[in-house]
Amino acid sequence: MKTITIIIISLLGIYGIIVTIFYLVQDTLIFHPNKLPEDYEFDFSGRFREHFIKTHDGQKLNALHFYAPRPKGIILFFHGNAG
Predict the structure, then answer these.
(1) Number of domains the chain contains
(2) How does pLDDT run across 40-54, given as a tens digit for each residue?
């Protein structure tokens, strides 16, 4: 019985270590940032305009404004991390 308890505690400990490691590195596993150069030219079939928005902390946000022939509303889409 003592051997089974030691094995179960050891397996739970190993499992806990693995889960902790995955938790600590989850950003690098999930998000793979592909940063485009600032002079990158988008190629879309419809009319659009590109905007650069400078934040107060010096970061640059990139935005694309697509024009619709008969607009009925606005869609605001946040791509996510480094997208």
Answers:
(1) 1
(2) 888 999 899 999 999
